[in-house]
């Protein structure tokens, strides 16, 4: 399991066309590791303009990490929530 935090990390591994804004939280098959998941960099949460926006982004970030935990701990219900085909 590899977790990419932010667009720079994700694009370095998954290609320049990868967009965290539209593809975050998806499990992606990769020839290097069984699963890759990209999400926002935590600093982007802090840069949100309002506390409501920060809370909403933190909830999305937490949901992304719950998917990772589901994969690592074998919880199919968490891991299977969002997945994508091999790239």
UniProtKB/TrEMBL annotation:
Q: Give UniProt keywords alphabetically.
A: 4Fe-4S, DNA damage, DNA repair, Hydrolase, Iron, Iron-sulfur, Metal-binding
GO terms for biological process, alphabetical: DNA repair
Q: Which domain of life is it from?
A: Bacteria
Gene Ontology MF annotations: 4 iron, 4 sulfur cluster binding; deaminated base DNA N-glycosylase activity; metal ion binding
Pinpoint the Uracil-DNA glycosylase-like domain residues.
Answer: 2-65
Pfam families linked: UDG
Query: Which PANTHER family would you find in this protein's record?
Result: TYPE-4 URACIL-DNA GLYCOSYLASE, TYPE-5 URACIL-DNA GLYCOSYLASE
**Official protein name in the record:** Uracil-DNA glycosylase-like domain-containing protein
Q: In which organism is this protein found?
A: Nannocystis pusilla
């Amino acid at each position: 399991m590899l977790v990419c935090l932010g667009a720079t990390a994700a694009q370095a591994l998954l290609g320049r066309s990868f967009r965290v804004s539209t593809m975050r939280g998806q499990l992606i098959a990769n020839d290097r590791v069984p699963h890759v998941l990209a999400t926002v960099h935590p600093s982007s949460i802090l840069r949100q303009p309002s506390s409501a926006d920060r809370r909403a982004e933190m909830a999305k970030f937490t949901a992304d990490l719950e998917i990772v935990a589901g994969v690592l701990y074998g919880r199919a219900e968490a891991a299977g929530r969002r997945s994508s085909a091999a790239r």
